[in-house]
Amino acid sequence: MLKVDPERIEVLVREMRMLVDGVRELERSLDFYQVRAPASDPVSTNVAQQSTVMIEHGRRYLADWRQHLVTAADALEAQGRGYVTADRNARA
């Protein structure tokens, strides 16, 4: 269970959004990797194919992680707005 002080939600959301940007950057960096077989023998070809598959798996993992971080940051931001609204209503 994650417990967050309502006063820290804004900072936490900002830090999560920065993390999202970093993951996105890392995800995009994988676009530049292309593994080509150095020779046409079956071992070289297989290594190149498997490397390409692993790079794609890594890219998908990062994309999924990024989306989970976005969802979590959005949820925390909404919760923060709820705290502000409840506090404002309590003072009225």
Overview of this protein structure:
The protein is mostly helical and 92 residues long. Helix 1 (9-29) packs antiparallel against helix 2 (42-91). It has two helices and no strands. The chain starts with 8 loop residues before the first helix and ends with a helix. It has a single domain, classed as HP0062-like domain (Helix Hairpins, Orthogonal Bundle).
* CATH hierarchy class name: Mainly Alpha
Overall structural domain count: 1
Distance between the termini: 32 Å
Overall pLDDT level: 92
Layout of SSEs?
Layout: H1 9-29, H2 42-91
Helix pairs in contact: 1-2
Keywords:
mainly alpha; 0% strand; Helix Hairpins; 92 residues; 77% helix
Short summary of the structure?
77% of the residues lie in helices and 0% in strands. The protein is mainly α and 92 residues long.
